[in-house]
């Protein structure tokens, strides 16, 4: 029940980035080397919804080295730099898209000086979802869901599901919280909207017994060597996800709520 299941999260596969977005940008050669390692070490990637099903149905047996490859945001370089590598190994992945920016640029990344990164188009998203990638929702405008009014949070949770379903013709069952931030109320809204899973961040491995609406993910940074990566996917040195929200997270939410007007400048380490 508690076999560690790493859920990796990537954002951009590219060579260039502003300094504040560097952590979220992996050079294509490094991404290719990591996928080659997963293939060679016989890992079995599955999608978020496959994991959610296994979490609710004990008759589903997962392969010994199961992991998840996820991407947040819906940047255009997913199509050009990540998808071809995933196809090469027949690796399923889960891509979380902030639908308000489709066909445009990454306008929410003001704090990182990255407002001009091209985003996927709807036709690319349709092609992606026909190529073994599960498309999930990552809100509409990438807000801090845990500190905005509930009605607004509900719209941010429901609207991308509807839009993605319209454009891809497929059910959208998984969500990822912008910046990883969520609260009990936000989780409840996600559940009510009809999703069966939701991803946070946390830098911990997951397990079948985890909360399927607060899945831990591991951010893969450009400083992760291949050696470290191979340890990371084994779960070495990483905790299994804590099921309860840490006090530190709650305190930080209070700070963010109290200083909402400063949010664009108060961004220490979120995507
Ligand atoms: Zn994001």
Second rung of CATH, namely the architecture: Alpha-Beta Barrel
Shape: globular
**Beta-strand percent range:** 5-15%
Secondary-structure element series: EEEHEHEHEHEHEHEEHH
| CATH evolutionary superfamily | Glycoside hydrolase/deacetylase
Describe the largest sheet. Answer: 6 strands, parallel
Radius of gyration: 17 Å
Overall number of domains: 1
Write down the CATH topology: TIM Barrel
- Percentage of helical residues? 25-40%
Specify the CATH class: Alpha Beta
> N-to-C terminal Cα separation, in Å?
31 Å
Average pLDDT works out at 91
Unreliable runs, pLDDT <50, ≥5 residues? Answer: 266-271
Q: What is the count of β-strands?
A: 10
Question: What's the total helix number?
Answer: 8
Distinct small molecules bound, one entry per kind: zinc ion
Class from secondary-structure proportions: alpha/beta
Write structural notes for this entry.
Strands 1, 4, 5, 6, 7 and 10 form a 6-stranded parallel β-sheet that branches. This protein has a two-stranded parallel ribbon with strand order 2-3. A two-stranded parallel sheet has the order 8-9. It contains 8 helices and 10 strands. It has 271 residues and is α/β, with parallel strands linked by helices. It is globular, with a radius of gyration of 17 Å. The longest helix has 19 residues, at 150-168. Residues 266-271 have low confidence and may be disordered. Helix 1 (28-40) packs parallel to helix 3 (77-89) and helix 5 packs parallel to helix 6. Helix 3 links the parallel strand 5 (66-73) and strand 6. The protein has a single domain (7-262), classed as Glycoside hydrolase/deacetylase (TIM Barrel, Alpha-Beta Barrel), CATH 3.20.20. Bound molecules: zinc ion. Zinc ion is lined by residues 72-73, 138, 142, 178, 271.
């Amino acid at each position: 029940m508690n076999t560690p299941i790493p859920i990796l999260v990537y954002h951009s596969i590219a060579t260039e980035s502003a300094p504040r977005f560097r952590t979220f940008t992996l050079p294509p050669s490094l991404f290719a080397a990591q996928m080659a390692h997963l293939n060679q070490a016989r890992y079995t990637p599955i999608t978020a919804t496959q994991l959610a099903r296994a979490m609710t149905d004990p008759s589903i047996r997962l392969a010994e080295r199961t992991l998840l490859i996820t991407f947040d945001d819906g940047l255009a370089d997913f199509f050009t730099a990540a998808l071809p590598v995933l196809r090469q190994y027949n690796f399923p992945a889960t891509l979380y898209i902030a639908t308000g920016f489709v066909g445009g640029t990454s306008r929410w990344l003001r704090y990182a000086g990255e407002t001009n990164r091209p985003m996927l188009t709807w036709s690319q998203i349709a092609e992606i979802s026909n190529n073994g990638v599960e498309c999930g929702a990552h809100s509409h405008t990438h807000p801090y869901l845990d500190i905005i009014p509930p009605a607004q949070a509900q719209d941010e949770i429901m609207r991308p599901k509807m839009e993605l379903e319209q454009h891809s013709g497929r059910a959208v069952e998984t969500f990822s919280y912008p910046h990883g931030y969520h609260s009990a109320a936000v989780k409840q809204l996600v559940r009510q909207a009809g999703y069966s899973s939701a991803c946070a961040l946390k830098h911990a491995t997951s397990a079948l017994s985890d909360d399927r609406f607060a899945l831990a993910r591991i951010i893969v940074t450009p400083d992760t060597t291949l050696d470290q990566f191979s340890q990371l996917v084994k779960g070495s040195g990483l905790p299994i996800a804590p099921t309860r929200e840490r006090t530190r997270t709650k305190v930080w939410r209070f700070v963010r709520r109290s200083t909402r007007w400063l949010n664009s400048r108060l961004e220490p380490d979120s995507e």
